Amino acid sequence: MAGDRARAGRARTAPADQGRVRSREPVQSWKGTAVIDPSAVRPSPRQLAWQRQELTAFVHFGPNTFTDLEWGTGVDDPAAFAPSSLDCSQWVAALVSAGFKSVILTAKHHDGFCLWPSKYLPHTVSAGFGRDVVGELSAACEAGGLGFGVYLSPADLYQEKAPGGYYGNGSPAVSAQIGEFTYVVDDYNRFYMQQLHELLTSYGPIAEVWLDGANPTHSAQTYSYDDWFDLIRRLAPDATIAIGGPDVRWVGNEDGFARETEWSVVPFLNGQMVAEQTAASVAGPEELARADELRWYPAEVDVSIRPGWFYHAAEDTAVKSVPELLDIYRKSVGRNAVLLLNIPPDRRGLFADPDVEALTAFGAAVRQYYDTPVALPGEVNVVDLREDITAGQQVESFAVDGLVDGSWQEIARGTTIGHRRLLPLESPVTVNDVRLRILSARADAEVSLSVHFDPLL
């Protein structure tokens, strides 16, 4: 299940050779010049566009949907995947209506089954269902104005267990042709990159490539991350590479919250994050003091709308409520992260009714309570701060005062802001005006302040 998945290794830090460059060395497209001044670190255009989405969706779909498993075995019958009424446009319509900006599909989960007719193996939709789910969702996203991303699991139980499989087979690295490019890789990395090439050239445009760190296999297999990143940058230069990739890090849990102090400026030492991604602090003073490099490395918060990541009919009554989803929203989007909310299609190939109802109500609540500020004077219970992150992330601590009955009173206090900070008040208060006091900052920062009232708090 979700917790098992995290324990199995999602919290992988960036590879040791990723970004180990200094200011006088050549800089490859995914690598950043060494920076030790935290006020000088800036997001790339792709990271900025990614952060501004705020709401993104995950779709876990595959044989597990039909076998009632969370992690498949790798030898499941591909004919088990048999949605009766697949309609990717229904997914897109529900997501767009709720305010989501992009969706990431599990094109291949850990079981190795492919939701597109890959020419590199038989364990795909071609073995039974016969329809290209990746292609249909890509087309629906383009028609609906939704960004499209792909999850391609590095771990592959089918390639580990199938006769002649490549995963962990001990093959040497040799010259391999990947489309129009040549790399020196072993059998499995060649296979993985061939699949990346298929996805990035046959579908899209691709907004995000998601590389899960979880690994249920039992074979030793080294991943050629730098070659993967190079191929993605060549074929999809605007796509963010997430979770262990160079653009976006895992927040460190699957419970729907970022840290109260969440920095996008993250310290590295010898090419690795100083702290584990699961640590309570990944970019505090102690971590900064140990760094030889700082990078813009923002957090993504992945959580499911249900207890499981794949659909299980028994969980139809356990879909998160609107107050629960709004709490997640405040603690992810409202803590300088992007929310990646999983909505798993059912065995029909549709978002189930309880999920659509929750999404619809959640989107309406966000629009009503958080998209439009309260006109003052008025009653408020949430403060909303936004830092201009094109100039970096600078604010270390702040306070917000409210003008109450003719005098200024402190109503909220916090640490980092970043792209957005939503801070609930202890109780509602009627104010005539509000003001921000920046208590500590790394450099000058431009911050906007607004206030909201959420009746569900």
UniProtKB/TrEMBL annotation:
SMART domains: Alpha_L_fucos
Annotated region (Disordered), positions in chain: 1-28
Family membership noted in the UniProt record: Belongs to the glycosyl hydrolase 29 family.
Full protein name: alpha-L-fucosidase
Keywords (A to Z) from UniProt: Glycosidase, Hydrolase, Signal
Pfam families: Alpha_L_fucos
Source organism, top-level taxon: Bacteria
Any one GO molecular-function label of the UniProt entry: alpha-L-fucosidase activity
Domain called Glycoside hydrolase family 29 N-terminal: residue spans: 79-365
EC code: 3.2.1.51
Species in which this protein is naturally found: Kribbella sindirgiensis
Main EC class the enzyme belongs to: hydrolase
Coiled coil recorded as keyword: no
GO CC annotations, alphabetized: lysosome
Endpoints of the signal sequence: none
Record GO biological process: fucose metabolic process; glycoside catabolic process
